[in-house]
Task: inverse folding
């Protein structure tokens, strides 16, 4: 099972930033690179970021 490592604020910012990039890509305001917004959206929705693993980072509150 994947252990969550993305906290609430981090999750909200990732989903918002990713959504904005994808919307800008759909409307033609930015180039194809705007579709990279899918990555932060996915990590926010899954609450897991593989880039945090090598560094042992987590933005989740400890229990």
Result:
């Amino acid at each position: 099972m994947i252990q969550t490592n993305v906290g609430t604020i981090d999750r909200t910012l990732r989903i918002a930033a990713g959504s904005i990039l994808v919307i800008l890509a759909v409307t033609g305001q930015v180039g194809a690179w705007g579709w990279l917004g899918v990555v932060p959206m996915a990590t926010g929705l899954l609450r897991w970021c593989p880039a945090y693993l090598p560094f042992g980072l987590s933005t989740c509150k400890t229990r």
